[in-house]
TrEMBL record:
It comes from Micrococcus cohnii. It comes from the Bacteria. This is Resuscitation-promoting factor core lysozyme-like domain-containing protein. Residues 1-39 form the signal peptide. Residues 47-115 form the Resuscitation-promoting factor core lysozyme-like domain.
Length: 124
């Protein structure tokens, strides 16, 4: 998929679709992975909480019931809109620094909205 260099175009669909279209599955319990000792850090505390909730910090995590994968459990269709993930078919295929950059990109664009379905795990 060729990506637009225009941020508005790239995220236009994401803004217009329902929150469910950007849902990042909360799959930490289903995955049951522990954080690796060398886990990267985005420098954004809430993203670190989300990462632990979503995957236990496992950058190769794969949700068994959806296309969500990687440390932040990006759905494949969300991953396609993130320029940080260019060159990697799925989040789980991407190295840690690429997944972290994609999470920061999405967070800078939409805040925590994509991760609201798992908020029970990382809020407060």
């Amino acid at each position: 998929m060729q990506h637009s260099t225009n941020s508005t175009s790239r995220f236009g669909l994401a803004r217009l679709t329902s929150a469910a279209a950007l849902t990042v599955a909360g799959a930490a319990a289903a995955i049951g992975a522990a954080a690796p000792a060398h886990a990267a850090d985005t420098g954004i505390p809430v993203l670190e909480e989300i990462k632990q909730c979503e995957s236990g910090g496992d950058y190769q995590a794969q949700n068994p019931t959806s296309s969500a994968s990687g440390a932040y459990q990006f759905m494949d269709f969300t991953w396609e809109y993130l320029s940080a993930g260019d060159g990697y078919a799925t989040p789980a295929d991407a190295p840690e620094h690429v997944q972290d950059a994609a999470a920061v990109e999405l967070y800078n664009e939409l805040g925590v909205a994509p991760w609201i379905p798992s908020a029970h795990c990382w809020v407060g």
